[in-house]
Amino acid sequence: MLARDIMTTHIISIGPDASVRDAARLLSTYHISGVPVVDADGVMVGLVTEADLISKVGKAVADIMTRRVLSVPDDTPVDAIAQMLTSNGYKRVPILRAGMLVGIVSRADIVRMMASRWVCEKCGAIQHGARPTECFSCGADGGAFEREIEPRPELSRRQ
After folding, report:
1. Which fold has domain 115-156?
2. pLDDT tens across 56-97, in order?
3. Which of 11, 97, 107, 121 is 20 to 30 A removed from 49 (C-alpha atoms)?
4. How far apart are CA 106 and CA 54, in angstroms?
5. What percent of the chain has pLDDT over 90?
């Protein structure tokens, strides 16, 4: 499974000229801990996180953002991304295609992938985790699987 298979493509971002207060509002509103900083041409120039907001001083996002950001191409294996996240203590990694930001893979995206159910369209067999390369039941190619995430409303309801 590759980054493009699990990445979040609805990217919430902010400009480098936005105020620190605007960044705090954005993170708070969307219940996220960091966003890419994108310039007027759509090029990612950094990342601003909760840690940046509470540990650095500045008026604009450009003053406090992290400029050196680890990013990977969209064909990077998920296992490699998981290793990067855990070994570096990161929560997310921006995904690039031809140098442009096309998605984000977070720890939550990887956990969602692990919770996925894959249903073989040929025989109905269910397998869990990453996309199967072959059906254990009928031998069908992995392309015959459709991804399902079984909802758990009791876990997703906010108290």
Report:
1. Rubrerythrin, domain 2 (2.20.28)
2. 999 999 999 999 999 999 999 999 999 999 998 899 999 999
3. 97
4. 21
5. 61
R_g over Cα of the chain: 18
Q: How far apart are the C-alpha atoms of 63 and 48, rounded to whole Å? A: 10
Q: Are 46 and 32 in contact (CB under 8 A)?
A: no
The contacts of residue 53 (CB under 8 Å, 6+ apart) are 20, 23, 24, 27, 64
Q: Does domain 3-111 correspond to CATH entry 3.10.580.10? A: yes
Q: What is the DSSP letter of 131?
A: P
Distance separating the N- and C-terminal Cα atoms of the chain? 34
pTM greater than 0.85 (yes/no): no
DSSP β-bridge partners for residue 128: 117
> Does residue 144 contact residue 150 with C-beta atoms inside 8 Å?
no
Q: Which residue in 16, 18, 33 sits closest to 90, CA to CA?
A: 33
CA distance 72 to 66: 16
Query: pLDDT band at 149, cuts 50/70/90?
Result: low
Q: Say whether 30 sits in a helix, a strand or coil.
A: helix
Single out the residue of 68, 67, 65, 76 nearest to residue 103, CA to CA: 76
